[in-house]
Amino acid sequence: MAKIDRTEEIEEIADLAEAVMELLEEEGEPEAPDLDQVILDALARQNVFNVEVVSAMAALTAGKLGQSQFDALIKEMRQVHHAVMDAVSLWAETKSAEDD
């Protein structure tokens, strides 16, 4: 079975994922994010993480997974976790305010 090099495809999707993150950073309100913004940020970070996972899997299958790539994957995983927790916290605050 022939190996398929998906490096270009992974890089293209990674560029698109980073562009989404940049757009959210440019258009967002960092001092007072609303629930939609926080959820979109979490989803965008999850998207970047997914690309990192696929990239790491590709490197692993090629025998090229380095420590720095693994460290970057763990860092991105932490950022996803924090973004999701921010979204959940803001959602809970919003829900609590609606219930009052």
Q: In summary, what is this structure?
A:
This protein is mainly α and 100 residues long. It is built from 3 helices and no strands.
Helical run tally: 3
Distance between the termini: 62 Å
Structural class: mainly alpha
Q: List segments where confidence is low: pLDDT < 50 over at least 5 consecutive residues.
A: none
Mean pLDDT: 85
Judging from the principal axes of the Cα atoms, what is the shape? elongated
Largest sheet: none
Order of helices and strands: HHH
> What's the number of extended β-strand segments?
0
* Oligomeric state: single chain
The fraction of residues in strands falls at under 5%
Q: What fraction, in percent, of the residue positions are helical? A: over 70%
C-alpha-based Rg, rounded: 17 Å
What does this structure look like?
The protein is mostly helical. The protein is built from 3 helices and no strands. Helix 1 (7-27) runs antiparallel to helix 2 (35-61) and helix 2 packs antiparallel against helix 3. It is elongated. The mean pLDDT is 85.
